[in-house]
Amino acid sequence: MPWLRHGFGTRLSAGWLTGGHLATTRQIHSDRILPVETPGPQGEGDALISNRPGIGLAIRTADCLPILIADPRHRAVAAIHAGWRGVVAEIAPKTIHAMCQRFDSRAEDLIVAIGPGIGACCFEVGPEVAAQFQLEGRVKVDLVGTTCRQLGRNGVSLGQISTSGMCSYCSPELLESYRREKEAAGRMVAAIEIVGLK
Ligand SMILES: [Zn+2]
Question: N or C: which end of the chain has fewer CB within 10 A?
Answer without folding.
Answer: C
